[in-house]
Amino acid sequence: MVIIDGKELASKIKVEIAKEVDLLKAEGHKVPHLAAILVGDNAASQSYVKSKVKFCDDVGFESTLIKKDESITEEELLDLVKDLNEDDTVDGYIVQLPLPRHIDPEKINLAIDPQKDVDGFHPTNFGRMALGLPSYLPATPQGILVMLERYNISTSGKKCVVVGRSNIVGMPMSILLSQKREIGNCTVTIVHSRTKDVEQEIKNADIVIAAIGRANYITADMVKPGAVVIDVGINRIEDPTKKRGYRLVGDVDYANVSKVASFITPVPGGVGPMTVTSLIMNTLKAAKKEIYK
Ligand code: GUN
Asked: What atom of ligand 1 comes closest to residue 138's alpha carbon?
């Protein structure tokens, strides 16, 4: 069994991106600039945004963090989005989710200029992705594709089960892996709350992508021996032995599934660091105008 070390791979790619930034500078270009809007004080969001800003610092990108109180109105947030759309110094930006309940995330998403939508959440980018056109790929699915590629895991003709159908992970992941692309050509099944025999579907899979947000949901008896298991889940479970009172676990029962899988991602240190890496890769593409010429 091979552990897919997302943390190590992210560090490697960090070095590669830093070299590209040096090259851009040497050619007289400005460094890529990512902005992030963070609304409210959700602890997980704060931690994610912090790691995005740190990654920017590490690779030599400029970053701008715009923190707003939870009381910000939808209109004020839309104005902020408009400002970022018009700010030529910003190559790409994200609005960290979730947003407070009085703000419609769909409205905000639609207001983002697709050319700066490095999250790849705007319908223009999602549609372009689904059609196989150049687009910013959503960070988590792209991070998973990079992991599969860098670990030389062949996907062509493989049966892949994606557990979960969210707009930001499960749905785009299922589309990408079914496409005619280097890491793709899978026969994909999406498993969700209405699926008749979830366990049997998972058991059939050569590649399992778990993205449902349920701690330790996928157990060893559900996994075909030799399967590749990618765990997107980040769940907090109580743990009185920890100072903070909890620990993070994935959607996969790692201790036991790792005994039957051929490749597996740990939590933490698997998909998480690759998601951040992927956002930074998209920002570099934005600065280099690779997607939208
Ligand atoms: N919240 C959880 N994941 C993400 C992400 O990838 N992007 C944004 N903007 N918010 C998130």
From this structure: 6
Active-site pick, 91, 116, 117, 119: 119
Is 96 known to be catalytic?
A: yes
Report the CATH number that the domain containing residue 183 is assigned in CATH. 3.40.50.720
**What per-residue confidence (pLDDT) applies to 15?**
98
Write out the residue range of the structural domain in which residue 201 sits: 139-272
From CA 117, how far away is CA 107, in angstroms rounded? 14
95 and 148 co-located in one domain: no
Long-range contacts from 175-180, C-beta under 8 angstroms, 24+ separation: 175/129, 175/130, 176/129, 176/137, 176/141, 176/145, 177/207, 177/209, 179/132, 180/132
Residue 289 tokens read as 């105008």
Instruction: Say if residue 34 is in the same domain as residue 93.
Output: yes
97 Cα–ligand 1 center, Å: 5
Query: What pTM value is reported for the model?
Result: 0.97
Neighbours of 166 (CB within 10 A): 17
At residue 188, the pLDDT reads 98
Based on the residue annotation, tell me whether 242 is a catalytic residue of this protein.
no
Say yes or no: 163 and 90 in one domain: no
- Which atom of ligand 1 sits closest to the CA of residue 279? 6
Indicate whether 149 belongs to any domain.
yes
| Residue 289 in domain | no
Q: What is the CATH number for 65?
A: 3.40.50.10860
Q: 194-212, pLDDT tens digit by residue?
A: 999 999 999 999 999 999 9
Catalytic choice (91, 96, 117, 206): 96
- Is 87 in the active site? no
Residue 220 domain flag: yes
Q: Which residues line ligand 1 (CB under 6 A)?
A: 94-97, 119, 139, 168
Our count of domains for the chain comes to 2
| Mean pLDDT, range 46-51, rounded to an integer | 96
